[in-house]
Amino acid sequence: MDDPKHLVDFRSPLLVQIVNSVGLGDLLAEGPRSVEEIGAATGWRPDLAARVLRALAPRALFHRDEDGRWSLTEAGQVLRSDHPDSVATARYSGFEVGGWTRMPETLRSGVPAFELTFGTSFWDWLAQHPGDRTEFDEKMRRRLPAMLSMVADYDWPETGHLVDVGGGTGTLLLDILERRPRMTGTLFDVHETVTTARDRVASSSAAQRCDLVAGSFFDVVPEGGDIYLLSQILHDWPDEAAVRILATVRRAMTAEGSTLLLLEGIFPEVDTIGLGLLDLHMLAMFGAGERDRNQWESLLSSAGFRLEDVVSGGYTSWLRAVPA
Length: 324
Known about the structure:
This protein is α/β, with parallel strands linked by helices. Helix content is 44%, strand content 16%. Strand 3, helix 11 and strand 4 (182-189) form a beta-alpha-beta unit. It is globular and about 70 Å long. The N and C termini lie far apart (51 Å).
C-alpha cells in the first residue's frame, strides 16, 4: 500500500485536474519541455509551473532530466488524451469541489452539501452563473465518448421520432440521427442549453431532421415521440423529483408503441466500476444517487412504466421501459 497519508491528501488530485485543464499531458507527450516552454504553452509563469511539476513528481507522473526539461513518466502517460486509460478529461469545477466541504452534515441530514455550502441548489447556481453553466456543459461533452460507444452498439430502429429529454447540446441525438437517416428527432433542454446547441445542430447533416425545443421536464415535454431518451438525467434527482420527470414524459407518450429509454448506471452487487464514488458525488451535489435494478423498477413503476429490458454496458446500461 502507498503511504497512508495519500488517503487524506486532497491536493494531488486537484493538481492533476489543474494540469489537465491546460492539456499538459498532451504537450509533454510530444517530447520533453523546459519550464519556459511549458509556461509559453499554458500561460503559467515558468517558476510556478516548475513548482506544480515538482509537487507531482513524487507521484511518478513527471520526470525532470539533467537539462531541467520535464517529460511524462510511464505512469504519467494516462494524462494524454489519446491513452486508452486516459484521465485527461477528469476535471471537476471549483464550485463542485467546494460543494463537498459540508458533506459530513449531508450524511446526517440528507441535505445536499452543495446547498449547505452555497445556499442554493446546483441548478439554480448554474442559472445564476453563466460561466459555470458553460463549464458544466463542456464537462458533459467531455464525458460523451463512452456514451457514444453505447449509442453505436445499440439496435436503433430505422424510422421513428426520437425525443432526447435533457439532451444537452445534442451530441447523442445527432449521432443517432446520422446513423439512421430516416429517423427524426427533437432536442429538449433548458433555454440556455438549447441556445448553445443551435450552432452544433445547424452544422450537422441531420439538421433538417432535428427540432430544438426549450422548457422544463418538470412541466411538459414534446408529445408524440416514438422513443423518449433520458441519458444520465435521473441520477441527478432524488426519487420524488425523478418520478415527477418520468410522469411528465409518460403524459407525452401519446404515440402507439412509444417507449422510454434510459442510459444510466445500475449498481452491481459488488461495485467494481466506481459507481460508489459517483453515487456520493450525486448525494453531495443533488441529494440524489445511483440505483440498483430493484430501485429502477420501483421508480419506473411509480411513474406508470414497466421495465422491459436491461442491456448492461458496465459503467452505464440501457433500461427500456413501456407504459404500464
